[in-house]
Amino acid sequence: MDSPSPKRPHAEFESQSDDKDRISCLPEEVIGRILSRLTFREAQAICVLSGRWRHLCTSLVTDLDLDRLDLSEKMEDKPELAEKERARYVEWVDNVVHRQSGGDHALRRFALRFDLNMSYKSRIDRWIRFALAKQVKVLELDFRPVSTEDLLGGCLPYLLGHETLMDADVRCPHLGPSISWHVGFTYLEELYLKRVIVDGEFIEQLLANCPVLERLTLNDARTLNRLRVSGQSLKLKYMRIACCDDLEHVRIYDTNLVSFTFVGRQCLLRLNKLPQLSEVSMDGCLLKLVHEWLPKLSSLPFLQILKLEFIYSRRYHQRIPHQLPKLTSVKQLQLRVKGTGDLSLLPLTVVIEACPYLRSFVFELTDPWWIPNGEGRELERVVRPLHRYLKEVAFYNYYGRPCDLELVTYLIASAIALEKLVVNTCDKEYVSGEWKKLKEPRERALQQLKGKVPLKIDLVIN
Question: pTM for the full model?
Answer without folding.
Answer: 0.83
